[in-house]
Amino acid sequence: MKKDELLRMYHEMVVVRRLEERSAELYQQGKIGGFLHLYIGQEAVCTGLISARLPQDRVITAYRDHGVAISCGIEPRRVMAELLGKVTGTSKGMGGSMHLADVTKNFWGGHAIVGAHLPLATGMALADKMSGADAVTICMFGDGATNIGYFHESLNLSMVWQLPVLWVCENNLYGMGTAVDRASAVSQIRQKAEGYGMPNDRVDGMDVLKVRAASEAALANVRGGGPFLLEIATYRFRGHSMGDPERYRKTAEVQQWQEDDPIGIFHKHLRTSGCSAAELEQAEQQAEEEIAEAVRFAEESPEPGPELVFAGLPAEAS
Amino acid sequence: MPSMTMREAISQALWEEMERDERVFILGEEVGLWGGTYAVTKGFYDHFGPERVRDTPIAEGTIVGAANGAAMAGLRPVAELMTINFAFLAMDQIVNHSAKLEAMFGGQFSVPVVIRAVGGGGRQLGATHSQTPDVVFAHFPGLQVVAPGTPADAKGLLKSAIRSGRPTLFIEHATLYQVKGDVPEGDHLEPIGVSKLQRPGGDVTLVTYSKMLEVSLQAAERLAKEGIEVEIVDLRTLRPLDMGPVIESFRKTNRAVIAEEGWGTYGIGAEVAARIYEQALDFVDAPIARVAQKEVGLPYNRRLEQMALPQVEDVIQAVKGVLGWRK
Do B108 and A91 touch (CB under 8 A)? Predict the structure, then answer.
């Protein structure tokens, strides 16, 4: 991989980290409402995975979607504006943290009913197949989503219809506070693909380059044939959402994973493969500035007007 | 004007829309090789092929979900649910996705999906297969809910639903499939969200839709022989609800009965009555009456099932009740 691309990926991971750190602060200040699910610890997943897609490939994910939005090429300022409920946000302030989307970047959301976007991905892949488009739908979801009926119905149907869809499970070991082994009959999610005769793979999600390589292979597999399930083993360093008391896991466990910080791992790798400390620092500095600008932009942006309340609904005739 | 059954009218609408627009396709259980559980899509598989007439596994949530996704991606899916009772298995997709996504994402995309569902009681199918839960779906903003009572309306409204670009639940009453009626030739369209006067009369306004239109027309015939002229307004669309013709009629008659096949509690009758009171209180000469299903799951036994369903006689009694009411 070229040095420019490596540095771009490093910068992207830092942007996501800083965005989430600032979001947490703004949430605590009461400037962000609703639920806030941070991506900290999982940056290698969105960066590695989405860097492998072609522009025509669709991306759809669950509610932990800020990092995914950034990796799809949405500017941090538009993400931050949506978090603050501003009209300049990706969804004009109508969706909030869990419902980011920008279809011009082929990012189809942020969906907050666990598992419910898997059938949507099935349908989008079906549309691409029917119209003869050379596009893959990349559908990301958590380990918790693999226990709901939608997951099984959608994997099954995608195989029956041989749809161009890449199922990506971000296994961060907990569905809210319930550990995988307390909720799932099999500990490796990839095993569930076997039941549908679906090719699959599992990769270390703390190493962005491994994620990238596995994603490239998986996407090639989908383009050459039918669906594929890629399990990416990762960990979230923060709680499920901002309101998480974290009684279900030990501090030592979190600390151990934090030693495997995906940004730290990538930093180490880059230092030994031709990137200077100054170059990495510059990428970090640039990310800091972008996030500061994003917050400024979001705070200065106007609220959506009252006309948006009824936008997207058919007029009532009475 | 050719006469045809409701089944033929719906089938024609689908066929013509698929011929007109290649983005239109059908998916659902037994829609293809079988020809549709109610034979609505008979012959489609051979003509349009397996790509556009897609047999699915029994997985209602994913049938509607995949239809939503295909609609988001620019196609015009028509998903068939074998019965509306199975729509509960797809409730999340209908309520949280079909109805919500466009507005929630700031209008970036629309969800032009049509969900056809067969509903209604009276076929001895027991409590879980005989429901008329139309009002449940009409509760949710963002969803168009259409329930025709005549072949002409069925054809014209289904074609409009497919072209509307909006998520639509299209409810077909199973016992209306064999009912015949005149259907205008050619590209017949009926507007969604417009109620229709189905029979003029000056004594009582009778508001109804779907199967109960047929029942109400029979009641009106009998009442006419007794010199009572009932004016029937067919809602046709439950959301958006068009009260215009209802209020216009009520200002003339000052008395109203609302007849629905589903349960009355929190029902169509409750909604329409509330709106009449809100919009035409000065014209009210008698409490508005509601005719609805008994508040039970429908029994299998034919006699008991008919006892629980609203009948012609129930409508007649309700009409006489509001006419005879004095302070």
Answer: yes
Q: Compute the mean pLDDT over every residue in chain A, rounded to the nearest whole number.
A: 95
Structural domain of B112: 3-182
Looking at the structure of chain B, the number of domains it has is: 2
Name the 3-class secondary structure at B81: strand
The CA distance from B96 to the nearest CA of chain A, in Å, is 8
Identify the segments of chain B with pLDDT beneath 70.
Answer: none
Annotated catalytic residue, options B16, B17, B29, B60 = B60
Q: Would B43 be classed as within a structural domain?
A: yes
Residue A307 has what pLDDT? 84
pTM: 0.96
Q: What length does chain B have?
A: 327
Residues of chain A with pLDDT > 70, as a percent, come to 98
Cα distance between residue B39 and residue B264, in whole Å: 31
Q: Could you tell me the pLDDT band of residue A316, with boundaries at 50, 70 and 90?
A: low
Of B159, B182, B205, the residue that ends a domain is: B182
CA separation, residue A184 to residues A63, A84, A193, A194 (Å): 21, 36, 14, 15
Say if residues B212 and B260 touch (Cβ distance below 8 Å).
Answer: yes
Residues of B in contact with A61 (CB under 8 A): none
A105 touches B: beta carbon within 8 Å = no
Identity of the residue in B93, B106, B109 whose CB atom sits nearest the CB atom of A119:
B93
Domain range A3-298, CATH class: alpha beta
Query: Which residue type, as a one-letter code, is found at position B173?
Result: H
Alpha carbon B229 to chain centroid, angstroms: 25
Contacts of B193 in chain A (CB under 8 A): 314-315, 317
Q: Which of B182, B215, B245 is the last residue of a domain?
A: B182
